[in-house]
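Final report, closing paragraph on structural work. Over the funding period we assembled a curated collection of sequence-structure pairs, and we close with a single example.
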Amino acid sequence: MNLRNRAALLSPVIVAVACSSAPPAESTASSSAAITTTDAIARGEQWVDAQLHYCQSSYMRPDPDSSCWAFEGSSHLCDRESNAAWNAYRSDCSGFVTWSWGLPAVGDGGYVTGDFAPFDGAFSHVIAANDLQPGDALNKVTNEHIVLFKQWVTPGQTAIFMEEPGCSASQPYAHEFTSSLSISGSNVVIDYEGSTPFTAIRFNGMQSAPPPAPADRTSSPVGVNADGRLEVFVLDTSTAVEHDWQSSAGQSWVEWSGLGGSFAAAPVAVSNADGRLEVFGTESDGSVHHAWQTTPNGSWSSWASLGGSAAGAVAVARNGDGRLEAFARASDGTIEHDWQTTKGGTWNGWSSLGGHFTDEPVVAVNDDGRLEAFAVGDAGALWHAWQTTAGGPWSDWASLGGTPSSTPAVARNQDGRLELFVRATDTALWHLWQTTPGGTWSGWASLGGSYAGSIAVAVNKDGRVEVLAQGTHGALWHAWQTTPGGSWSDAADLGGSFTGQVSVATNADGRLEAFARGTDGALWHDWQTTPGGSWNGVASLGGGLAP
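Its predicted structure, as stored:
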């Protein structure tokens, strides 16, 4: 069984492990590579997805671990899945971390536990356990096992790890597990691994990766193709879906083309894990329909029904394991959700999250991968619910208060904290934010101004959040953080005359681009001339959009 999607907390289990601890044939001083946290996790997940069998040797080399011989047969060769990218690596615990960190397959297939901190500081160093970040590792104090840290579930209490566990383990291949833990300084006791502590360590070349662009993980009328080209989706005056796209990433736009269908709410698009865009629309009978690119950047499927009884547009986000999850306000006022059972695969069917709401939901992705949904309740306050574990079950709804009069917009700050924006009943722009990534929320604070339309928000290339909204006289206004996660500028006028939804997306080079329906019924756009810099001025993309 592939454990990668395992979300439930495992009860404590002592796992028998073995891992190479003899010195390699090459000096560790030669390792000076750099890798981002995102790439380290992605490399580890390749072995997890492949369920790469444990061996204390590289591919088709003699394996000295007798506990693996039953798997390998009389030849005692490491007869695991062949892949040219990793054939040279041992698929034991330290070979797994060697591979994940992008280090060379020195000696007999990679570094050994004694080459990693705290035993050797040539390319890694000890860190405080409460500072563990994705891509870090934990090396057993007895110099016999090492695991890769994937993410916190509850900081300081529960986390997700990846490992090659040993041939005598119940899953003798690269897998992922969730475990409770306890920390003291740099030491961590991982309950799943027994009572012997591990030391938290970090690769010297580890680099933080910026948060993904909002359009990459959450739905918007503007999608981002796998090759970086923006693609925008609208309803035309006949209620069919039309789309237009950039000819190449960040460049000129092609022309409008029809995707057909007949819908009562604006379409939204989101990227699948393999880069294929998928677009969703709600028909007049409340059923949700979707269409998808058959290949990344490629042609489109026909529309297919997901059923449901939606009372407006849907919101869609991509779970950490790659599965899309859709949310809609049902005709009875509750929020319902549906999800892919495997990434890019079939859909489960709609299920209720309860509550009672007057507006469409929005959804965001927390820093630890947990989805969080927001909607305006029938008493006027903003409510939220969240996954209790990444990809797992949902909490009850809880009130965030406030007096919103618009659908909220959410972005993730550079430090991982979500920040949410609404137009309030006083027509000003208000916001609140998580005080720590995935944690509790601040009180509401006003950013002032006077607005009449929808709100859109994005993250600049340098990590500063920027919010755009339609003013009371129809022009587009924006305000921005002066430093990442810091104070806010005054609002500034971008001009134009708009009547519809405002959307914003991030170009491949980091420049923001905004879209809104003009009073002439065409789609208009404006864009930053440099990442995080000044704006060009509004220009028409043509088309005839539904009011």
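Confidence is low (pLDDT under 50) at residues 1-18, 22-32, 211-215. The first helix runs from residue 37 to 50. We thank the funder for supporting this effort.
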